[in-house]
Amino acid sequence: MTESADLAPIREAVRTLCADFPGEYWRALDRERAYPDKFVAALTKAGFLAALIPEEYGGSGLSMSAAVAIMEEVQAAGCNGAACHAQMYTMGTLLRHGSAEQKARYLPAIARGEQRLQAFGVTEPSSGTDTLSLRTTAVRDGDSYVINGQKIWTSRAEHSDLMLLLARTTPRGEAKTRTGGLTVFLVNMRTVKGLTVRPIRTMMNHATTEVFFENMRVPADSVIGTEGEGFRYILSGMNAERILIAAECVGDAKWFIDKAAAYAKERVVFGRPIGQNQGVQFPVARAYMGMRAAALMVREAATLYEAGEDCGGEANMAKQLAAEASWAAADMCLQTHGGFGFAEEFDIERKFRETRLYTVAPISTNLVLSYIAEHVLGLPRSY
Ligand SMILES: Cc1cc2nc3c(=O)[nH]c(=O)nc-3n(C[C@H](O)[C@H](O)[C@H](O)COP(=O)(O)OP(=O)(O)OC[C@H]3O[C@@H](n4cnc5c(N)ncnc54)[C@H](O)[C@@H]3O)c2cc1C
């Protein structure tokens, strides 16, 4: 299964851009937990973050496979796309379910990078993975809604103009269906009142936050699609998210494998390169096989997505296999470097911390396994 030759220039262009953002750049930001403004601006200017926005709205109008190539190259170059990957896919909910007026108002500005739609407010501290039990409420009051509640892990909220927010508009017991009663809002974070954002310091530089809504009033035309249908809209955007994050994990795995193979060739101990020992070379080879297998699943998921076919199983499997491959490659790379793997200047410990996230977020391993068990294999629902 070879990749289309059309993607080679895109890969090359991303590699060229990333060469301006070497390890020192990321290390300095990591120490301060600072946001990579320059990197995000460069990706935006090149049109990469607008890859999936159609040309009629000023985007690059590229395919999912092209978006996969972009994110994979970013990570394979040692950069960190987590700072901005949501700009690529969060707009999908607006694109698929927004009104013509909303799309015309927001998508061109998002494509130009003038408006950042990077904040995705779904997870709450009390509900966790059980999204349907979220407690943030939005109550209609004249021509606006009043929102109260809290979200957690709302990444990039400080670096976003807009937030896609999921809130309950009909009490759970009164909703017509099990998944009904939740509504998606596009919130202008710059103009709204009653919104507080608090950064959470994490083990890696991720710009994540908790956000609080206290009588936050938003205009009624902030609703995306139909009131009460929000859960379905959020789910419909998840395949793109899974596929792109899987691509990032494949890129991470490539970075770890390249780094380990290069080091194993040059590091001499007991009078020979460490990579001459099977005990060192086999884990590198195993990590490589894992990465290649995951990349195939990412490609299959992207191909189905482009064809407009159901790709829920493939997107979930791609994300899980790629997250496992990148984590295995990270562990292998650190082991191959021995003590030097722990030194900041090698960048391995930083990438090791960064890639660990993806077996937990945006969906954790157990929930992917439950999805496959239930939706692909027809086993009874377990939760
Ligand atoms: C750095 C970071 C960034 C994030 N960014 C965002 C963001 O931008 N927007 C957003 O909305 N969310 C975001 N998240 C939230 C992320 O999606 C959740 O952390 C993730 O989905 C897991 O949910 P949880 O943390 O609530 O775990 P919980 O739901 O509390 O689960 C804890 C553990 O129990 C397991 N578990 C729970 N229920 C079951 C079950 N029925 N069967 C088997 N196992 C189960 C889970 O798999 C997990 O391992 C982010 C999280 C992190 C850490």
Describe this structure in words.
The protein is α+β, with helices and mostly antiparallel strands and 383 residues long. 47% of the residues are buried. Helix 1 packs parallel to helix 4 and helix 11 packs antiparallel against helix 13. It starts with 6 loop residues before the first helix and ends in a 7-residue tail after the last helix. It has three domains: 106 residues, Acyl-CoA dehydrogenase/oxidase, N-terminal domain (Butyryl-Coa Dehydrogenase, subunit A, domain 1, Orthogonal Bundle); 112 residues, Butyryl-CoA Dehydrogenase, subunit A, domain 2, CATH 2.40.110; 142 residues, Up-down Bundle (Butyryl-CoA Dehydrogenase, subunit A, domain 3), CATH 1.20.140.10. Bound molecules: flavin-adenine dinucleotide. Flavin-adenine dinucleotide binds next to strand 1 and helix 13.
State the main characteristics.
single chain, 383 residues, alpha+beta, Butyryl-Coa Dehydrogenase, subunit A, domain 1, Butyryl-CoA Dehydrogenase, subunit A, domain 2, Butyryl-CoA Dehydrogenase, subunit A, domain 3, four-stranded antiparallel β-sheet, three-stranded mixed β-sheet, 47% helix, binds flavin-adenine dinucleotide
